[in-house]
Amino acid sequence: MSERVPAPGGLALVESLVNTLDLESGADALDTPDGRARLALTAAEDLGDVRELRESLRAVCLAHAGHPPHRAVTPLGDLLAAAPLVVAVRSDDGSASLRPAADPAPLLARVAAAVAEALTAGTWQRLKACEAADCHWAYYDRSPAGRGRWCSMQVCGARAKMRRYRAK
Q1: 71-87 pLDDT, tens digit each
Q2: pTM of the predicted model as reported, rounded to 2 decimal places
Q3: Which of 3, 78, 125, 151 could be 130's S-S partner, Cβ–Cβ 3.0 to 4.6 Å?
Q4: Which secondary structure element, helix H or strand E, spans residue 156, and what is its range?
């Protein structure tokens, strides 16, 4: 849907997961082997749990943009509390980070690590969801004031402005 540059760092994974569902067409990339491969999902991961995580992330992205949740979802904090993470400390410089505890890392752990990384980098609040009700596509808001509203000004923004103009 969007022509935007992907989110920085681990947020690209979160953005990619949220955008596996096209609300307008109903197409779900998780239904395809290629869509699951793009997220490096393991065979053991339950797609129901992945979809629940996706919709909880979408609700948080909507909250970052100042909008109510699109539907009732499990709170993201409850889901991420079960993520198997460890603190990794580098011996050369002493820097620390959260990393998934297992290899291959389950999606939940990779998302939790990405959220933690984004929190420390100050980028978490910039991951938002488009305000268009038939879109809610995740995007990283790179606007100077952090007040972006749509995933694409050429599509969702233009539609919203045209609706407002016609209503006058």
Answers
A1: 999 999 999 999 999 99
A2: 0.87
A3: 151
A4: none
